[in-house]
Amino acid sequence: MKLPTVGGALQPAGPGRSERRSLAAATARAGDERGAVEPLAPGDPRAGVKVFADYDGEVRASCEVLVVGSGPGGSVVAKELAEAGRDVILLEEGPPFGVEDFRQEAGESLARTLREGGMRAARGRMLIPTMQAIALGGGSVVNSAICARSPAWVFDKWAERTGTASITLDALLPHYQRVERLLGVSPTPMEVQGERNLRFKRGCDALGLSSEPTHRNVRDCRGSGECFTGCRNRAKMSTDVSYVPAAIRAGARVLTSVRAEHLLLSGRRATGMRGRTIEPFTWREGAPVEIRAELIVLAAGCMATPLILLRSGAASSSGYVGNELQLHPGLAIMAVFPDPIDPWEGATQGYHSLHFLEQGIKLEVLWSPPAVLAARFPGFGHDYQRHLRTYHRMAPFDVIIAAEQSRGTVRPKRGGWDPDVRFDYAPRDVEKIQRGLGILSDICWAAGAGSILPGLHGVPDELRSPEEAEILKSKRLDGRDTITAANHAFGTARMSRRSRDGVVDEEGRCHDLDNVYVADTSVFPGSPAVNPMLTCMALADRIACGIIDRW
Ligand SMILES: Cc1cc2nc3c(=O)[nH]c(=O)nc-3n(C[C@H](O)[C@H](O)[C@H](O)COP(=O)(O)OP(=O)(O)OC[C@H]3O[C@@H](n4cnc5c(N)ncnc54)[C@H](O)[C@@H]3O)c2cc1C
Ligand code: SF4
């Protein structure tokens, strides 16, 4: 049998053990003098990574640290441990995306960048679409780049739930700051807001609601509104062009198109991982892969990390693996203005309001490929075309909620590697999102909208006045009356002080395993209240610093 190694040009080139950085050094960079941290320069996501065409038969390799998943969580850990002198392999199931690999057409883009072609949904009383990427860089390649710190009270709530008293805003602050500096996170400038975002601000201002430009991990954003299908301007500092190239520069080996499937276990330790190569876009299985490692960090995302643990029969003593799935359900309505606003111009999600955040409600401007939004227009034939003709006057605004009462599960699906996702949307959370919908409607009118397309069952297709829109507040909505989607998912390998309350400890290490860590949104004990990426990265940075310190 031919057993090519995966070293060669990608063999680690980082410092030797004696030169390895200690936690003191790592956290010094995360401390107050972090102004010295140089922002990462955007790199080529394909440079130095192994791709499917590079594999010729079975793949075997060994390393000190195996990181599974190159999204916001995994890429941070890979870079930090590689820079600390560890011999790191980063495994990613998806391919790297060069600019020419992105597709603007929605269907084609979904099929190439998202799991299950973008059609994944949580099942319960209703279907709730939930998107996860399959790409080097994970969700950061397709997301809107919103980087928001969770407020202090989020961590208090987490501690109440699972005892994670050491995870406070103060403790995470240096990690937030370091990630922000490395990614160049800054407020969306007015010049690239576009009228769609500015109308939302106008509505909030008129109602006396606080609102602000979103902070994003972008450089020289041109406001093209294409974040969802991949930034062709390479302005978005997704992890495939930031943290992953930095990890490679520090000697990490990056193997894309490899799916990690099972942990190899020996007592309380994992000795490696088995998986397969996966052909990009056909998603056909290729050759077996076996990687031996001294330490493993799972960061395959909130849907895949629990599947790996469940299929390996690992970390299961608490019974929490794959349970406690939480989502941020979201609803959008379309404001139709009397004058053209060309909504395709401007940063994808340039403005938001945190005014009702403590009540679990976040209000945002939205944009996605025109075909995706148009699928929600009401009517048929002439009526449908009437809406298409007014597209240039429309702006989608959305509400997302911290669905504190709702829970779900992630389980392996028979005969495949996709998860069986279930989510019970609690009536009290539906009431909460309806409240947000009512506020959004007020924002639309205050911003000067002439009508609203609410996209709700049992409500007129078009509401032409604030009086008509009262129905959005007065009618008792059922979750099934809505088109709810949720791209923020967390909680399926939650962090807890005591081993019986969760899957990993406050350092991210599995309670049941001595050398397996989790560093993605699975570990959140509850909602982060805001968009989750930045908190995921700050936690991953903290987990990486902890590993460096203890090893
Ligand atoms: C359309 C969209 C817009 C969003 N907008 C924002 C936003 O603006 N701001 C924000 O904060 N959040 C946003 N989010 C959410 C955010 O992107 C996610 O919370 C974040 O990406 C989660 O990071 P992660 O590392 O936990 O997982 P992921 O980003 O899902 O990364 C996991 C990686 O692991 C890989 N993987 C999975 N299984 C395996 C396996 N078995 N073997 C090898 N590799 C595997 C995946 O391909 C993926 O690359 C958005 C999400 C979507 C889908
Ligand atoms: S709005 Fe356009 S230029 Fe700006 S980050 Fe998104 S895709 Fe890139």
How would you describe this protein?
This protein is an alpha+beta fold and 551 residues long. The protein folds into 2 domains: 23-99 and 238-320 and 493-550, FAD/NAD(P)-binding domain (3-Layer(bba) Sandwich); 101-146 and 189-234 and 325-489, Glucose Oxidase, domain 3. Helix content is 25%, strand content 20%. It has helices spanning 23-30, 72-83, 106-113, 152-162, 169-183, 194-207, 243-249, 304-312, 370-374, 381-389, 427-446, 471-474, 533-550, and strands at residues 49-50, 59-68, 88-91, 121-122, 128-129, 185-187, 212-213, 215-217, 253-255, 258-266, 269-278, 285-298, 326-327, 330-336, 351-353, 361-365, 394-401, 407-412, 419-424, 451-453, 489-490, 516-518. Strands 1, 2, 3, 9, 10, 11, 12 and 22 form an 8-stranded mixed sheet that branches. α1 runs antiparallel to α13 and α6 (194-207) crosses α11. The chain binds flavin-adenine dinucleotide and iron/sulfur cluster. The site of iron/sulfur cluster has 15 residues, from loops.
